[in-house]
Design brief:
seven-stranded mixed β-sheet; 6 helices; 549 residues
């Protein structure tokens, strides 16, 4: 009996011990489950906005309520992980939930090796790993653009005289393939260039390009003083500096495009801007070294700055002026029909160490002789001491006027459309009413009907618009640099002294006022007080200054 009781007692203790062990195991399993499956830490209903912030302070703001569940589910389902297993190649982002009753802040970590698809979040429970099923959708946000290799256009380097200089785009439109395999527009504007890229060049400089990825389309537009001077494509030579023949600042805009294809994770276009600063030696040119009497020589000094000196020594009887425009200086040097023919005149131009000497040969030219008959009463009333005094008083002071601004642009036009004119008219020797002495006819007599419109041959400033005894209704226009057009015998004046006129503006009408035998326009050009051939100016313009100017 006693043995049975003892046995029963031992069996009861054993049963109790087994139940205790089982109970202990259940408690441990429950605790493990609680640890392994954390309670939700976010509730979708309370979220107003989500803000992602990168280490530079750039943000992506998510306000679409349909996107809130992505981040709520990602964080609530994250599993704790040993911090050492997360690795060191992580990039940190701020993850801020704006709630109806406050804020909840986390740190989000992305493994830079995107092929691992590893996302982590720092919560109250420590570092947790987010499931891979959330990786692609979360990594589509613009804030993560910098994690992608092709988040911006390929790098471009300029090679100048053996040195390489990397420049960033000033603007771009860029598409890149993200983790989900789709293309998205890059919005990382802070990757654009903020520096001012400027490079010094000389006439021997060679400019080349080194592309991280060769573009499919390349254009380089070069501007000087806001004027397009050159367009270069990729297959053109690289010694671009030798093609820029004047010194100064050249603003360069490079436009590149990369096309979309199956082998690339990107496509788009980008603009790069830089400046080339050219400082070339002064170059001196002359328009001709043989010339007819009564024609215009032009000396042009290029690559000369306003502070640099320019001196001109010449045997031609004229004191020239030099006019600065940008980094070019222009000298108008007229050769009068009074200069001796069939001989050479020395011209020496110097600036610093640059000296150019020219020998200008004045060719012989035969000027015709004209015997003119005019009513003696008209001649006596219009050509006398009073008319001479008036010319000396009103016109002579205008001859040395030389505005330092070049008003004229491009070609000069005929002042009277369809007028009758002879090229031999300029410079001919004229005898009036069998006078034993002659004078030189200093312009062209353009015949036309009375009242025909007269237009400004080019832009300029009206120096005088008045009636004079000998020249009748008279207009003189200064076109800049001392170049003037003269108009005599008009019937009516449509402008007044001081007016600015444009090429083609009607300034008056054909008449026969003053010393005149019939309706016509006497039309002349001067450089200061030297008369030059109007035909040459009308047909060819001013030498060394082309129509494009």
């Amino acid at each position: 009996m006693k043995r049975s009781q003892k046995t029963a007692k031992r069996r009861g203790i054993q049963r109790y011990g087994t139940r205790a062990v089982i109970l202990t195991l259940l408690v441990l399993i429950a605790a493990f489950i609680i640890i392994a499956v954390p309670k939700p830490v976010l509730k979708l209903a309370g979220i107003v906005e989500i803000t992602l912030t990168d280490p530079l302070g750039n943000t992506s703001i998510i306000s679409d309520k349909n996107s809130f569940s992505l981040y709520v589910d990602a964080i609530n389902s994250a599993r704790p992980i040993n911090r050492e297993l997360a690795g060191q190649n992580l990039k940190s982002y701020g993850l801020d939930f704006t709630l109806k009753n406050g804020h909840k802040q986390y740190r989000l970590y992305v493994d830079r090796a995107l092929e691992r698809k590893s996302l982590f979040v720092e919560t109250e429970s420590g570092l947790c790993k987010i499931g891979v099923e959330y990786f692609e959708r979360i990594l589509s946000e613009p804030i993560f653009d910098t994690l992608y290799e092709h988040n911006r256009p390929p790098r471009v380097s300029l090679t100048l005289d053996g040195l390489s200089n990397t420049i960033l785009p000033s603007d771009y439109e860029w598409q890149m393939r993200k983790a989900d395999g789709e293309f998205y527009p890059a919005r990382t504007d802070y990757l654009k260039g903020t520096d001012y890229y400027s490079f010094n060049i000389n006439q021997e400089s060679v400019l080349g390009y080194d592309f991280e990825v060769q573009p499919d389309i390349f254009y380089l537009f070069i501007y000087r003083d806001n004027n397009l001077v050159m367009v270069q494509s990729l297959n053109q030579p690289d010694n671009i500096a030798s093609l820029l023949d004047e010194d100064g600042l050249y603003n360069c805009i490079m436009q590149l495009e990369w096309n979309q294809n199956d082998d690339r994770d990107f496509y788009g276009k980008a603009t790069y801007e830089f400046t080339l600063v050219a400082d070339y030696p002064v170059r001196i040119d002359i328009s001709a070294e043989e010339i007819d009497p009564g024609e215009l020589l032009v000396i042009k000094a290029s690559n000369i700055q306003p502070h640099e000196d320019l001196s001109i020594e010449t045997e031609i009887d004229f004191k020239p002026n030099a006019f600065q425009e940008g980094n070019t200086r222009t000298v108008l040097l007229p050769v009068s029909y009074f200069h001796k023919e069939n001989r050479s005149y020395a011209v020496k131009v110097s600036s610093g160490e640059v000296v150019k000497e020219f020998s200008v040969f004045v060719r012989p030219k035969e000027f015709i002789i004209q015997n003119l008959r005019i009513d003696p009463q008209v001649a006596a009333s219009t050509r006398n001491e009073k008319s001479s005094a008036e010319i000396r008083e009103k016109l002579y002071p205008l001859k040395p006027v030389s505005d330092p601004v070049r008003y004229w642009e491009g070609e000069f036009i005929q002042p009277v459309e369809g007028g009758r004119v002879s090229p031999e008219d300029f410079g001919k020797r004229r005898y009036v009413n069998n006078s034993p002495t002659s004078y030189r006819h200093n312009g062209l007599d353009i015949g036309h009907d009375e009242g025909a419109p007269i237009v400004a041959t080019n832009n300029g400033r009206v120096l005088i618009a008045d009636y004079l005894i000998e020249t009748g209704n008279t207009i003189i226009i200064e076109h800049g640099y001392g170049l003037k057009s003269w108009h005599y015998h008009l019937s009516e004046l449509y402008v007044k002294t001081g007016d600015m006129v444009k090429k083609g503006d009607v300034i008056g009408t054909v008449g026969s006022t003053g010393f005149s035998t019939g309706p016509h326009l006497h039309f002349s050009f001067t450089i200061n007080d030297v008369w030059i051939n109007p035909i040459t100016i009308l047909e060819h313009g001013v030498p060394l200054i082309g129509v494009e100017d």
